[in-house]
């Protein structure tokens, strides 16, 4: 870049690129490098030029018809001028010296006022309101830390209820600015949910989840964007009834119905494998679907699963565990040593497929039974076999309620404990 000395100070001279002619009509710019040392000047010239580029880019953004882009451009342009952006009302309250300093900054050498610089320095760009739908768009970026380590399907499962909650709120209140959400709006939303609970038979827990997700989205945007709003989100939850306990399949039903010859032939191979693996491991369907090849150790002295956060986030820290493979579970995984690829990103689809098949083919012991009931049967079998509580909790990925000491027993020992109950 050409630098020249004007008097005792080195300057950078560059032509104004065509991209920025709409915001700077000069043919060329002279930028002071604020030094009389040529060595220092050459070190500073790329930095000063980049600052000038940033200034032009901010001015271009300020020409946008998008209110948010104009506001962000004003913030950036103020920062590039060494100022903190303040709304006009706050600028008017500044001490006289500080106000005059801002006014002088926006004058060009010919005395003409730079309108965009003036808007940035004097607070001439209004902060755009954030509507409810826009709050959700902003939320994804502000809540990135909550999805670290998730697989694609885990992130989708995490995002969907938040999308649904925002959609439900907009259906009741309209897509208004979040600063205008009133206590009456939220009571109307609660009344809407109350009607669904009483008329459609939905559970209070479902409504409470919607309220929780709304609080998460709107609260995060309010906090991270420093809006300083008091959102009327408290005191809205519904009293929940005691949840019905999940029902376990009986051993006889598994042996004589689910494992009867040909009973699972109507399932695709991967879905059938999920059922068989669950029967002898008690693993969650989502864990079986998402496991990767390094977690399937078929050639070890004791073949086993070793659940780890590979390509996904585990449900809890207790979900990292080892489970010996026996009987039908071992046979099933020998067919799929790379994992259940068909359902790796679709555990919900896998559960839906299997539950539908169980219903259509009479494999549910009662209407209350589901695929997940196999996990509960596995715990019942361990309990009846008098397997130690530490081992039961370790295998199922449950919290122990105290610090875990040691490995919880060798794989050989755990395998021998489970062998008598394996199908």
From TrEMBL:
Signal peptide: none annotated. It comes from Paracoccus denitrificans. It holds the Pfam family Phage_integrase. The keyword Transmembrane helix does not apply. One of its GO terms (biological process) is DNA integration. Keywords: DNA recombination. SUPFAM superfamilies: DNA breaking-rejoining enzymes. This is Integrase. Residues 243-419 form the Tyr recombinase domain. InterPro entries: DNA_brk_join_enz (IPR011010), Integrase-like_cat_sf (IPR013762), Integrase_catalytic (IPR002104).
């Amino acid at each position: 870049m050409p630098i020249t000395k004007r008097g005792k100070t080195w300057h950078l001279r560059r032509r104004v690129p065509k991209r920025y002619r709409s915001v700077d009509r000069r043919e060329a710019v002279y930028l002071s490098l604020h030094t009389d040392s040529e060595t220092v000047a050459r070190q500073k010239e790329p930095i000063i030029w980049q600052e000038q580029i940033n200034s032009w880019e901010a001015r271009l953004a300020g020409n946008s018809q998008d209110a948010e882009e104009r506001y962000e451009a004003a913030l950036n342009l103020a920062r590039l001028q060494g100022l903190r952006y303040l709304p006009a009302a706050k600028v008017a309250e500044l001490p006289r010296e500080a106000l005059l300093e801002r006014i002088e900054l926006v004058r060009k050498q010919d005395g003409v006022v730079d309108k965009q610089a003036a808007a940035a320095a004097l607070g001439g760009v209004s902060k755009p309101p954030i509507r409810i739908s826009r709050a959700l768009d902003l939320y994804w970026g502000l809540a990135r830390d909550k999805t670290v380590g998730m697989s694609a399907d885990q992130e989708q499962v995490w995002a969907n209820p938040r999308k649904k909650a925002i959609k439900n709120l907009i259906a009741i209140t309209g897509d208004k600015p979040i600063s205008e959400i009133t206590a009456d709006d939220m009571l109307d939303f609660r009344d809407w949910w109350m009607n669904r609970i009483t008329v459609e038979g939905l559970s209070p827990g479902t409504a409470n989840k919607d309220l929780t997700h709304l609080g998460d989205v709107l609260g995060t945007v309010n906090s991270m964007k420093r809006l300083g709003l008091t959102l009327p989100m408290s005191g809205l939850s519904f009293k929940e009834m005691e949840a019905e306990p999940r029902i376990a399949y009986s051993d006889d039903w598994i042996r004589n119905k689910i494992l009867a010859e040909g009973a699972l032939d109507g399932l695709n191979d991967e879905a059938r494998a999920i059922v068989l693996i669950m029967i002898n491991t008690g693993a969650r369907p989502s864990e079986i679907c998402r496991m990767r090849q390094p977690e399937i150790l078929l050639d070890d002295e004791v073949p086993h699963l070793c659940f780890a956060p590979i390509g996904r986030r585990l449900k809890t820290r207790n979900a990292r565990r080892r489970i010996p493979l026996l009987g039908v579970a071992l046979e099933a995984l020998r067919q799929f040593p790379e994992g259940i690829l068909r359902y790796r990103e679709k555990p919900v689809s896998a559960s839906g497929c299997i539950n539908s098949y169980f219903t259509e083919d009479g494999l549910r012991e009662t209407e209350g039974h589901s695929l997940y009931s196999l996990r509960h049967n596995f715990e019942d079998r361990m309990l009846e076999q008098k397997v130690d509580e530490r081992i039961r909790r370790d295998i199922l990925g449950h919290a122990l309620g105290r610090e875990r000491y040691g490995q919880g027993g060798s794989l050989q020992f755990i395998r021998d404990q489970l062998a008598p109950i394996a199908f």
